[in-house]
């Protein structure tokens, strides 16, 4: 997306300070808002260090034609513990590209009168137009229904759900020593034809190269690394 030195990257993520440092003073909802504002900031910064997939600008763009891919679309799937944290991403920019936040109901919210949960999300086509999809903790038991149809969508999938990487997600956020950290699935990045900058990869607490989504025979070996 843009050339950013590793030192600047470290400074960008330095905003992720101790999540629970003021827990004795803040109310529970304020603590959650603080944690998810930090996580939303991570999502925002990830956008600066991912290329390829849906992040690739359209080649055939006329000068007087508005490219629908100009906005960077961040989708939120499910019930976020803090809605305001992600609402604050709306209107921010990465370079000249504004961020648009779209909201999608979680699978539990889609339960019909027959008490059955759909196998496929009814807004799947709209979800596939996102550049990033944040999967909320409310969707933990539906990861296979969410991730399998998106495997070749070219989008970056992010969550803070245990086993998200193993289920086929790209980046998972977690808390270690009261700080927000992240881990990366290189296989998922390769499937989506995403290039994750090596400067971001170096900050991951864990990377994996295999997950539960079986690769197609014509897929390349997982790599997911790219420019520094």
Helix content: 10-25%
Number of domain units:
1
Shape annotation: globular
Rg from C-alpha positions? 17 Å
How big a fraction of the residues is strand?
15-25%
Q: Give the class from helix and strand content and strand pairing.
A: alpha/beta
CATH level-4 homologous superfamily: Response regulator
Largest sheet, strands/sense/barrel: 8 strands, mixed
CATH secondary-structure class? Alpha Beta
Q: Please provide the ordered H/E string of secondary-structure elements.
A: HHEEHEEHEHEHEEHEHE
CATH topology: Rossmann fold
How many distinct helices? 8
- Average pLDDT: 84
**What is the strand arrangement across the widest sheet?**
3-4-2-5-6-7-8-10
Q: From the 3D coordinates, which CATH architecture would you assign? A: 3-Layer(aba) Sandwich
List keywords for this structure.
228 residues; alpha/beta; Rossmann fold; two-stranded antiparallel ribbon; 8 helices; 24% helix
Structural commentary:
The protein has helices spanning 6-13, 28-46, 83-87, 124-127, 143-147, 164-167, 186-191, 198-201; strands spanning 50-52, 72-77, 93-94, 97-104, 132-135, 156-159, 171-176, 179-185, 194-196, 206-208. It has 228 residues and is α/β, with parallel strands linked by helices. The protein has one domain: Rossmann fold (3-Layer(aba) Sandwich), CATH 3.40.50.2300. The strands form 2 sheets. It has an 8-stranded mixed sheet with strand order 3-4-2-5-6-7-8-10. It has a two-stranded antiparallel ribbon with strand order 1-9. Helix 5 links the parallel strand 5 (132-135) and strand 6. The radius of gyration is 17 Å and the shape is globular.
């Amino acid at each position: 997306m843009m050339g950013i030195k590793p030192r600047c990257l470290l400074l960008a993520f330095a905003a992720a300070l101790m999540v629970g440092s003021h827990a004795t003073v803040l109310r529970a909802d304020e603590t959650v808002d603080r944690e998810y504002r930090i996580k939303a900031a991570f999502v925002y910064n990830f956008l600066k260090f991912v290329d390829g997939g849906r992040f690739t600008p359209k080649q055939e763009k006329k000068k007087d034609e508005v490219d629908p891919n100009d906005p960077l679309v961040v989708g939120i799937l499910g019930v976020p513990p803090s809605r305001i944290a992600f609402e604050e991403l709306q209107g921010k920019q990465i370079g000249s590209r504004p961020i648009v936040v779209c909201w999608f109901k979680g699978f539990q919210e889609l339960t019909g009168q027959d008490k059955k949960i759909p196998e496929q999300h009814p807004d799947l086509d709209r979800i596939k137009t996102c550049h990033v999809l944040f999967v909320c903790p409310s969707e933990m038991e539906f990861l296979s229904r969410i991730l399998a149809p998106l495997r070749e969508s070219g989008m970056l999938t992010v969550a803070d759900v245990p086993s998200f990487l193993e289920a086929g997600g790209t980046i998972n956020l977690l808390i270690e020593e009261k700080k927000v950290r992240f881990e990366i699935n290189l296989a998922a990045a390769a499937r989506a034809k995403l290039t994750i900058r090596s400067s971001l990869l170096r900050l991951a607490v864990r990377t994996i190269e295999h997950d539960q989504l079986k690769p197609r025979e014509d897929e390349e070996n997982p790599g997911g690394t790219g420019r520094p």
